[in-house]
C-alpha cells in the first residue's frame, strides 16, 4: 500500500469499523461499506446482493416445508453515481433495483461468485469469452440506459466460510468526478487493479460480518419469541377452562399500553416506554404472565366437583348409600325370618329408603359447589357422614406404591374385618403433606399463607368447601402459578433489555390496596405496566367465552364487574378510566367477543367523574 493511499484509506476503514461495532440497521451499514468501497476504487456503481437460502427439508418430512423455492440472490443495496446524477433521487438506481430477487444460478456473475467463492475481476463484461460458464446479463444495462465495462465481483464470506452475499463494483473511472454515459463509459474507465481487489475483498469480509451478525441476532429474537408463544400456546391448550387466555391478555395489555403512551395530559401524561426494546420487554412479560401454570395440575385447574380428584368420587359414595340400602333390606328380611311384624318391617324399610334417597340427594347437590355452603349445611353433612357401614375387604390391596405407603403409615385402630367405616370421612391418609421443597422460595419475597398439606382429599373436607369446588390447598395450588411464574423467570438469564420481564409477568395478581399475591405489594411498588397487566388479566377472564363452566358475560356486565374491582382498590382508577374513554374495551371486544356479548355499554356511570349513584 502506498503512503498516499494509506493516509486516505485508513481513517475511512476505521470509520467503517466504528460504524459496524455500533448499533445500526443492516441496510445503512451495507450502504456505508459500498460507498466507501466505491470511493477507494473510484468505481462509478456497485451493488451488494445477499444470498437467501431456501428452507431446509425438515427431518421426517418427505417434502421441504414450505414447498422448495430454491436459493436466491436479492439486491440489498445499490448505488450508481452517474445514473443518480441524472435523475431525481426518488427514481434513482436504488429504487429501481432494491429487493429484486433472482435465482442463485452459476450462469450470472454474482451467482457464480456466490456459488464458487471465486473473485471475478473482468476488464470488459461485454468482451467475456463465450466459453466461460458465466456470462454478463446486459438486461439491466438496457433497462437503465447504462454501459457496464470493468467489473469486480467479490464474495462476502462469513466467519464459517459460507458466502452470504456478493459485493460488486462497476466501472472503475479514470477521473472519479466524471459522470459516465453509455457512450463515454468505455473510454473513461479502466480495469480494477490488484490492490483495489485486495482492499475490496477485505471490505466484503466486513460486510459479511454485518450480515451474519444481523441474521444471528434476528434469528435469536425470532427463536425466543417463538419459544415464548409456544409456551403460552401449550398452557392455553392444557385446559379448556383457560383456553386462549395467554394469547388474548397480551393483545389487551398492548392496546391499553398504547392508549396510555398516547396520553399528553392527565395523570398518565408522563408514562412512556420510550423505545422498541422497552415495548418488546413488556410484550414478552405479557406473553409469559401465566407461564407458571405449566406446573399447575389439570386435576385442580379443571376440578368441576368437590369430590373430584382425577375422577369424581361421588360414584364411590353413591355405592356406599347402595350398601346402606341393602343393609336396610337385609334387616327387614332378617326381621321377617325372626317372625317380626311384616307391616312394621315394610314401613321401616320404606322410611329408611326415603331417608337415604334424600340424604344422597343432599350430598350429591353439595358436591356441585354451585351455591354457598353455609355452616348448617356443613353440620348436616357431618350428621349424614357419621352413619356407618361394614367393610369386609382389605382396603390396602390394589394400591400404587405411594398410596400404599400413605395408607399403611396410618394403621386403623383394629385390623380385624369386617371394619366399621363412616359413610363420609376425613382419613389421615387423605392428607398429602407438603415437602419443605414445595414451599415458595423465600428469596423472592413471597408473602402467602401456605397450607400445611399439598392436598387434602378428605371427603368431608372437600364437600364442606363453602364457595366453588376448590379446597384451601387447591386454591393455593392455583395461586401458586404466579409464584412459579416469578421463580421460573427470575432464574432465566435475561439480557438487560429484558430485565423487567419478571416484574411485568409477575404482578398481575397484586392489588393497589396491598392485599394481592404473591408479595402483597402496595400501590407505590406497582408500575403503570404492572397495573395494565392486572386490568388485562381480569378483563380477559371476565369476557372469555371459552370457559365450559360458565356463560360468557356481556361487555356491560364485564365493565360493571371491573368497575367493582376499581371501587375496591384492586386496579388503577386512571387506567380504568382510560380503558373506557379510549375505547380500548370496545376495540378488544369487537376482536375477541362473540356477537351476543357486544352490547356497547354506556361508560359514563363507571368513570371516576361520574356522580355518585
Ligand atoms: Fe395469573
Ligand atoms: Fe392470567
Structural shape = elongated
List each distinct ligand once: fe (ii) ion
Radius of gyration: 38 Å
Query: In DSSP terms, counting alpha (H) and pi (I) runs of 4 or more, how many helices?
Result: 22
Short description:
With 613 residues, this protein is of the alpha+beta class.
Provide a descriptive summary of the structure in words:
This protein is of the alpha+beta class. The protein is 47% helix and 10% strand. The chain is built from 22 helices and eleven strands. Strands 1, 2, 3, 4, 5, 6 and 7 form a seven-stranded antiparallel β-sheet that branches. A hairpin with a 5-residue loop joins strand 5 and strand 6 (163-173). Helix 9 (245-261) packs across helix 19 (528-543), helix 12 runs antiparallel to helix 13 (342-368) and helix 19 packs across helix 20. The radius of gyration is 38 Å and the shape is elongated. The structure holds fe (ii) ion (2 copies). One fe (ii) ion binds at residues 289-290, 481-482, 508-509, 537.
Amino acid at each position: 500500500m502506498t503512503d498516499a493511499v494509506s493516509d486516505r484509506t485508513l481513517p475511512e476503514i476505521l470509520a467503517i469499523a466504528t460504524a459496524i461495532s455500533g448499533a445500526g440497521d443492516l441496510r445503512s451499514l451495507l450502504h456505508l461499506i459500498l460507498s466507501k468501497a466505491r470511493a477507494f476504487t473510484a468505481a462509478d456503481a456497485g451493488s451488494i446482493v445477499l444470498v437467501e437460502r431456501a428452507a431446509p427439508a425438515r427431518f421426517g418430512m418427505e417434502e421441504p416445508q414450505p414447498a422448495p423455492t430454491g436459493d436466491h440472490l436479492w439486491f440489498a443495496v445499490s448505488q450508481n453515481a452517474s445514473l443518480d446524477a441524472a435523475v431525481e433521487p426518488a427514481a434513482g438506481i436504488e429504487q429501481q433495483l432494491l429487493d429484486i430477487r433472482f435465482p442463485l444460478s452459476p450462469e450470472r456473475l454474482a451467482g457464480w461468485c456466490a456459488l464458487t467463492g471465486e473473485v471475478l475481476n473482468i476488464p470488459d463484461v461485454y468482451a467475456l469469452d463465450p466459453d466461460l460458464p458465466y456470462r454478463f446479463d446486459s438486461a439491466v444495462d438496457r433497462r437503465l440506459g447504462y454501459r457496464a465495462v470493468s467489473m469486480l465481483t467479490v464474495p462476502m464470506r462469513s466467519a464459517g466460510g459460507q458466502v452470504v452475499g456478493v459485493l460488486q463494483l462497476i466501472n472503475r473511472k479514470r477521473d472519479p468526478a466524471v459522470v459516465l454515459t453509455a457512450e463515454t463509459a468505455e473510454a473513461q474507465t479502466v480495469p480494477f487493479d490488484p490492490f483495489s481487489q485486495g482492499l475490496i475483498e477485505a471490505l466484503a469480509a466486513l460486510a459479511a460480518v454485518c450480515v451474519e451478525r444481523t441474521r444471528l441476532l434476528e434469528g435469536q429474537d425470532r427463536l425466543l419469541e417463538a419459544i415464548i408463544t409456544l409456551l403460552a400456546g401449550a398452557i392455553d391448550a392444557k385446559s379448556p377452562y383457560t383456553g386462549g387466555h395467554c394469547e388474548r391478555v397480551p393483545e389487551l395489555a398492548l392496546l391499553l399500553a398504547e392508549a396510555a403512551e398516547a396520553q399528553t395530559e392527565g395523570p398518565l401524561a408522563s408514562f412512556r416506554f420510550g423505545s422498541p426494546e422497552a415495548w418488546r420487554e413488556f410484550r414478552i412479560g405479557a406473553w409469559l404472565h401465566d407461564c407458571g401454570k405449566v406446573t399447575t395440575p389439570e386435576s385442580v385447574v379443571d376440578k368441576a366437583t368437590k369430590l373430584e380428584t382425577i375422577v369424581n368420587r361421588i360414584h364411590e359414595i353413591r355405592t356406599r348409600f347402595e350398601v346402606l340400602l341393602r343393609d336396610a333390606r337385609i334387616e327387614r328380611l332378617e326381621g321377617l325370618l325372626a317372625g317380626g311384624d311384616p307391616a312394621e318391617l315394610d314401613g321401616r324399610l320404606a322410611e329408611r329408603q326415603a331417608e337415604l334417597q334424600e340424604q344422597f340427594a343432599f350430598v350429591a347437590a353439595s358436591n356441585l359447589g354451585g351455591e354457598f355452603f353455609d355452616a348448617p349445611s356443613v353440620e348436616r353433612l357431618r350428621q349424614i357422614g357419621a352413619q356407618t357401614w361394614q367393610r369386609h375387604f382389605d382396603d390396602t390391596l390394589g394400591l400404587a406404591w405411594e398410596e400404599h405407603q400413605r395408607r399403611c403409615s396410618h394403621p386403623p385402630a383394629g385390623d380385624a374385618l369386617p371394619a366399621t367405616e363412616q359413610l363420609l370421612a376425613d382419613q389421615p391418609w387423605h392428607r398429602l403433606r407438603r415437602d419443605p421443597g414445595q414451599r415458595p422460595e423465600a428469596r423472592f419475597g413471597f408473602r402467602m399463607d401456605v397450607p400445611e398439606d399439598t392436598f387434602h382429599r378428605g371427603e368431608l373436607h372437600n364437600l364442606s368447601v363453602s364457595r366453588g369446588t376448590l379446597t384451601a390447598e387447591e386454591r393455593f395450588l392455583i395461586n401458586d402459578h404466579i409464584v412459579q411464574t416469578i421463580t421460573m423467570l427470575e432464574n432465566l438469564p435475561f439480557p438487560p433489555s429484558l430485565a423487567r420481564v419478571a416484574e411485568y409477568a409477575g404482578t398481575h395478581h397484586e392489588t393497589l390496596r396491598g392485599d394481592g399475591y404473591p408479595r402483597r405489594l402496595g400501590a407505590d411498588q406497582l408500575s403503570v405496566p404492572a397495573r395494565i397487566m392486572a386490568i388485562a388479566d381480569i378483563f380477559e377472564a371476565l369476557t372469555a367465552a371459552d370457559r365450559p363452566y360458565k356463560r360468557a358475560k356481556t361487555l356491560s356486565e364485564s365493565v360493571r364487574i371491573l368497575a367493582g374491582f376499581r371501587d375496591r382498590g384492586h386496579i388503577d382508577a386512571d387506567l380504568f378510566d382510560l380503558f373506557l374513554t379510549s375505547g380500548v374495551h370496545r376495540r378488544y371486544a369487537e376482536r375477541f367477543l362473540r356477537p351476543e356479548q357486544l352490547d356497547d355499554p354506556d361508560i359514563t356511570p363507571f368513570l371516576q367523574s361520574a356522580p355518585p349513584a
